[in-house]
Design a protein that fits this description.
This protein is mostly helical and 88 residues long. The protein is 68% helix and 0% strand. It has a single domain, classed as Helix Hairpins, CATH 1.10.287.810. Belongs to the small Tim family.
Amino acid sequence: MDSFSSPSMSSSGSPPNTEALMDQIKAQLAQAYAQEFLETVGNKCFAKCVTKPGSSLSGSESSCVSRCVERYIEATGIISRALFSSQR
C-alpha cells in the first residue's frame, strides 16, 4: 500500500490512527511547500541577478543570488510567524 492510500482499516484490523494520518499529511504538505518555495525563489532570484547566463556565475551574480534567497527566506519567516501567532 502506498503513502496515498487511505484504507478504512489498518493491517491490524483497527481503524487508522487519525493523528498519525494528519501528521503524515502535514509532512507531505510541508515538503511540497518547501519544493515550490525553493523553485519559485530560485527562478525569481536567477531572473533578477543573472543578466548574461553562461557556464558559471560571476562573483557579483553569485552574491546577488545569495542575498536574494536570504531575503526571501527571511520574509517568509516573518510572514509565517505573523500568521501563526495571529491564529493563537
